[in-house]
Design a protein that fits this description.
This protein is mostly helical. Helices cover about 65% and strands about 5% of the residues. The protein contains eleven helices and two strands. Strands 1-2 form a two-stranded antiparallel sheet. The longest helix is centred in the last third of the chain and has 27 residues. The radius of gyration is 21 Å and the shape is globular. The relative contact order is 0.17.
């Protein structure tokens, strides 16, 4: 008698394979990323006199609802086509850990250790898993800290990109040791500033009380608004971004090796990849 069973593929020596994505998952990721680029970057995309500017005050809520739905679609697609029960369990554990780490320091001077965990998790578990992990961690953190508002979907999207980027770094199987940690530290440093810049851009057009020298002007040319935005970033968030970037570098270089080993060991033992085999029993 022949019956069908599902067995995990044997882990290759020294390798922890990331969660693989299907075509629908990739398409969903591209869709939510494209919408996110428009939702965050519209002040620099629209020209003077654009009708979009006439509804600027409605944009945070409209984009928030749309982005929340799209991120939910991405998570559901990944769960259906790329994540098995063991991967979902690991996702929950890492998201809970990230959410618990974020309140440490309460954002003071950029003391946010969750960014370091997101970089290492994305490196080990791949870009698709990283995107969902980053988004879910930020969502859980917002619920934990009471930070729910129109900015939350932008935080979820930016953190998803942040974590996904670590999974796209080169040599996931060959690079190890100090060289790998140095690469992750450089990425974490740059990506921490990129995260802060994206969040600044998401909120900058709606800060009506700002001084005119750094406020968004719908009737201004692109180069003028870029200058204003740069001044806004330097005046408001440079210290926090620098603290976030520096802490990510320090944690990656000091304890990153142990965390990477633990994540890879857990991934190998979970054996996410499974294939269907047929056993023949004499009956």
């Amino acid at each position: 008698m022949t019956h069908e069973t599902s067995r995990p593929l044997p882990a290759r020596a020294g390798r922890a394979d990331p969660v693989r994505l299907g075509p629908r998952s990739v398409a969903a990721l591209l869709l939510v990323s494209a919408v996110g680029v428009v939702a965050i970057g519209w002040p620099l995309i629209t020209g003077p006199g654009s009708q979009v500017n006439a509804h600027a005050q409605d944009a945070p809520w409209l984009f928030a609802g749309l982005l929340a739905l799209l991120v939910a679609v991405v998570a559901a697609t990944l769960s259906e086509s790329g994540l098995g029960p063991k991967a979902v369990a690991m996702l929950g554990v890492l998201a809970a850990a990230g959410a618990a780490l974020r309140p440490i320091g309460a954002g003071t001077a950029g003391i946010e250790p969750m960014f370091f965990l997101m970089v290492l998790s994305g490196r080990v578990l791949g870009p698709g898993f990283g995107f969902v992990l980053g988004s879910l961690s930020m969502f859980a953190s917002a619920l934990l800290t009471g930070g729910v508002g129109p900015w939350m979907p932008f935080q979820m999207l930016a953190m998803g990109w942040f974590t996904m980027g670590a999974g796209l770094l080169p040599a996931p199987y060959r690079l190890r040791g100090l060289a790998e940690r140095a690469m992750l530290a450089v990425y974490g440093f740059l990506a921490a500033f990129a995260y802060g810049t994206l969040m600044n851009l998401a909120g900058w057009p709606f800060m009506n009380a700002l001084a005119s020298s750094v406020a968004y002007r719908p009737d201004a040319a692109l180069h003028e608004n870029l200058t204003r935005f740069l001044a806004y970033c330097l005046a408001t968030s440079l210290g926090w971004d620098l603290g976030r970037a520096a802490l990510t570098v320090v944690l990656t270089l000091t304890v990153g090796g142990a965390v990477l080993k633990a994540l890879r060991r857990a991934t190998r033992r979970a054996a996410f990849a499974a294939q269907v085999v047929f056993d023949e029993d004499a009956g």
